[in-house]
Write a structure and sequence with these properties.
Layout (H helix, E strand, L loop, with lengths): L1 E6 L6 H11 L3 E6 L8 H10 L7 H15 L3 E5 L6 H9 L3 E5 L14 H5 L4 E4 L5 H6 L5 E3 L17 H7 L1 E6 L7 H9 L4 E4 L19 H9 L1 E6 L11 H8 L4 E4 L2 H7 L7 E3 L2 H12 L2 H17 L5 H11 L14
Parallel strand pairs: 1-2, 1-3, 3-4, 4-5, 5-6, 7-8, 7-9, 9-10, 10-11
Length: about 350
């Protein structure tokens, strides 16, 4: 099995998680770094983003590199992550070479923050769109995509795990009553503000929180690798939510948090219920900022419930489930009719 992944190879990005998954399956793999399509000059990138409908400055060169690598190495599958700069013409060329193409559509292209002009024609040329949101499945089919299947996000066992033995300094640094991990998107601001107003020991990780005067003091910077795992483990409660503009029913963190030992309060959605079961099985659900405060306080003040939910959640996702990115790669093989070798008779998700 030979797979070319088109994505970001940094350790905390999906591209890297898929490389680790392919390695765990002993699939021969390479990754084509999507960052090479962009310029080192931020002003050139801004010009292309705003005036060329998000078309990267090295779009042509990137696609030629993709075709050259496929022509020389001839993978069985090209797996593209999200709204990557792959053209419709390149996808047609890959089909002529007998190479299957899949897009793991990490973001909703109808979200104005995400869509790119070149991407709409390309969507129709993939052999499969693996889509981790239920809300736009029919819209993708109506757009003319060849095949669309629901495929949830997953987790990477070599990156998302319970970090053992934090030092006293790390315990002091990362311990808090409640945490929100992720950038300060508009959807995250109301929950963060209502939690901040309660006087709880709140930790906010990610970009742009420092822009807001009322939230700046809760911002603890970015967290990757060991820092991320400790920030999850040492928080009394982790808040899990999707982005409404992205029509998320679940998010990457929905699977990553359980693997890192979180006690989770999850925003109510059909996808979260499918993953986590009923309320109090292994998470508590919330629908409004006021309800969020209530469930967070409940778990902060009930150590037995907190511990039970952590254990149940870990077992459901990591011990009792099949939610690694290796499982997701095997699912792609089954969607494609077992044309990818080694995919028979595996549970996928």
């Amino acid at each position: 099995m030979k797979i070319l992944i088109v994505g970001n190879p940094e350790s905390h990005h999906l591209g890297s998680h898929l490389v680790d998954a392919a390695n765990s399956l002993e699939w021969d793999n390479r990754i084509l770094d999507i960052r090479t399509a962009w310029s080192a000059n931020k002003w050139v990138n801004r010009f292309c983003h705003h005036l060329l409908r998000k078309r990267p400055p090295a779009f042509g060169e990137f696609n030629q590199d993709l075709l050259n690598q496929c022509g020389q190495w001839h993978p069985n599958l090209v797996l593209v992550t999200g709204i990557a700069p792959v053209s419709a013409q390149s996808l047609r060329q890959l089909r002529k070479l007998g190479i299957l193409t899949v897009n793991y559509l990490t973001d909703d292209p109808w979200n104005p923050q995400n869509g790119a002009g070149y991407f709409w024609d390309a969507l129709r040329e993939y052999d499969l769109i693996a889509n981790p949101r239920q809300a736009n499945l029919d819209q993708l089919r109506a757009h003319g995509c060849r095949r669309v299947e629901y495929l949830p996000f997953g987790y990477n066992p070599s990156y998302h795990f319970i970090e053992p033995d934090p030092t006293p300094e790390e315990i002091e640094r990362f311990t808090c009553q409640v945490a929100i991990l992720g950038g300060a998107d508009q959807d995250r601001l109301p929950p963060a503000r209502v939690l901040a107003a309660t006087g709880l020991d709140l930790a906010l990780y990610g970009g742009y929180w420092e822009k807001y005067k009322d939230l700046r003091k809760f911002h603890r910077g970015h967290a990757y690798g060991r820092d991320l795992r400790l920030a999850v483990r040492l928080a009394g409660v982790q808040v899990c939510m999707g982005r409404k503009a992205n029509r998320d029913g679940h998010a990457m963190r929905s699977l990553e948090f359980p693997a890192m030992g979180a006690c989770l309060v999850a925003e109510q959605s059909a996808e979260h219920h499918a993953l986590f079961g009923s309320n109090e099985d292994c998470v508590l659900y919330w629908q409004s900022p006021a309800e969020l405060v209530s469930v967070v306080n409940r778990l902060i003040n009930d150590d037995a419930m907190n511990s039970k939910l952590r254990d149940n959640l870990y077992y459901r996702i990591c011990a009792g489930g099949a939610h690694t990115y290796a499982n997701r790669l095997l699912a792609l093989g089954m969607f494609l009719g077992n044309s990818i070798s080694g995919t028979e008779n595996h549970q996928t998700y």
